[in-house]
């Protein structure tokens, strides 16, 4: 029985590790991007002029609140061909305007919706590969939790990110089990665990204290 458990654990450890490795590499690379400056970008071209498109303003959008306003804003965005994760909705009542930042990996779009004139001014900025990787690391994030995940692909990414955490926990626990089963490696393993625990504890003490 013990040999069967060991064999299944070893195989799952191997194949789950191979499956989750691209996600772990992405998160690891994005940590460097968040801790350090991005690599120098090539000479940027001037941003294109804002695009103005006609839009049929959904009725009730000015008085709507919360998820109702988010739904109506999404309807307006679909009319002008803008898709992505809505960061927030800013309503400027005096000017009858709604400003909506929308983000996709590598692209940041700002839609300025003029309710009085029925037109949308669209400004797009490309952030490149490094910006996309950094965005994926932070997304969906805890900010504006009430509207987070309003884009389908953001919800998919959230599931994948959660799955990466669960699989990483499994790899850690199964790795400890496999290490315990290998008696010849126990002393070396104990020394490495102790060194890691001391290093982690020292860093936490230095930061908190």
Q: Could you give the topology of this structure?
A:
Blueprint: H1 2-35, E1 51-54, H2 66-79, E2 85-86, E3 90-92, E4 97-104, E5 107-114, E6 119-126, H3 128-138, H4 152-181, H5 186-208
Antiparallel strand pairs: 1-6, 2-4, 3-4, 4-5, 5-6
Helix pairs in contact: 1-3, 1-4
What coarse outline follows from CA principal-axis ratios?
elongated
Model regions low in confidence, pLDDT < 50 over at least 5 residues? none
Helix content: 40-55%
Order of helices and strands: HEHEEEEEHHH
The proportion of strand residues reads 15-25%
Our Rg estimate from Cα atoms comes to 24 Å
The N- to C-terminal Cα distance equals 48 Å
Please state the oligomeric state of the protein chains shown. Answer: single chain
Account of the 3D structure:
The chain has two domains: 2-36 and 158-208, no CATH class; 51-129 and 142-148, no CATH class. Helices cover 54% and strands 16% of the residues. The chain is built from five helices and six strands. Strands 1, 2, 3, 4, 5 and 6 form a six-stranded antiparallel beta sheet that branches. Helix 1 (2-35) packs across helix 3 (128-138) and helix 1 (2-35) packs across helix 4. The two termini are 48 Å apart.
Which structural traits does this protein have?
alpha+beta; single chain; about 210 residues; about 15% strand
In short:
Helices cover 54% and strands 16% of the residues.
């Amino acid at each position: 029985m013990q040999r069967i458990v060991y064999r299944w654990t070893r195989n799952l450890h191997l194949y789950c590790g191979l499956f989750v490795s691209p996600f772990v590499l992405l998160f690891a690379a994005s940590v460097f991007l968040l801790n350090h400056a991005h690599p120098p970008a090539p000479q940027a071209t001037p941003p294109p002029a804002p695009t103005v498109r006609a839009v049929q303003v959904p009725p009730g959008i000015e008085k709507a609140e919360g998820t109702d306003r988010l739904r109506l804003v999404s309807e307006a965005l679909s009319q002008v061909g803008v898709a992505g994760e809505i960061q927030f909705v800013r309503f400027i009542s005096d000017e009858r305007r709604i400003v909506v930042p929308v983000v996709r990996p590598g692209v940041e779009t700002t839609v300025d919706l003029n309710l009085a004139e029925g037109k949308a001014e669209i400004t797009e900025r490309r952030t490149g590969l490094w910006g996309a990787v950094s965005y994926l690391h932070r997304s969906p994030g805890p900010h504006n939790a009430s509207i987070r995940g309003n884009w389908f692909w953001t919800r998919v990414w959230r599931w994948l990110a959660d799955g990466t955490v669960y699989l990483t926990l499994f790899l850690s626990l199964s790795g400890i089990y496999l290490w315990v089963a290998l008696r010849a490696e126990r002393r070396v393993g104990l020394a490495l665990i102790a060194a890691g625990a001391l290093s982690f504890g020292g860093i936490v003490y230095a930061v908190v204290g």
